[in-house]
Amino acid sequence: MRATILCSSSRVRFYGLKRLTASGSLAKLWLGENNIGTEGAKAIADAVAASGSLALKKLVVPNRILKHAELVAACRSKGVALS
Which one of 5, 42, 50, 65 is at 20 to 30 Å from 19 when CA atoms are compared? Predict the structure, then answer.
């Protein structure tokens, strides 16, 4: 079963993202209304890039980090739609 997680708190902890995506059950992660800056975007990019087999198909982030180069590259390399 695939899951969608909606995180609407600005206190999202990115170290857990790697575990969630590695579990093979997370298909969509919605972080769109969080106060995520460049440091958070890099942490997300690192977690996506480091994951081996990724079930994540869609990652929704705030507009301010939508074009973060490392995040865009990591998502492209893993086939994750970024919006």
Answer: 65
Burial, 27: exposed, middle or buried (Cβ in 10 Å; 0-12, 13-18, 19+)? Answer: middle
Rounded Cα distance between 33 and 25, Å, is 22
Pairing relationship of beta strands 81-82 and 3-6 according to DSSP bridges: unpaired
Distance (Å, rounded) from C-alpha 33 to C-alpha 64? Answer: 11
Helix/strand/coil (H/E/C) assignment for every residue in 27-74? EEEECCCCCCCHHHHHHHHHHHHHCCCCCCCEEECCHHHCCCHHHHHH
Instruction: Kindly list the domain boundaries of the chain, sorted by start residue.
Output: 3-82
Please tell me the distance from the alpha carbon of residue 82 to that of residue 61, in angstroms, as a whole number.
Answer: 7
66-77 pLDDT tens trace: 999 999 999 999
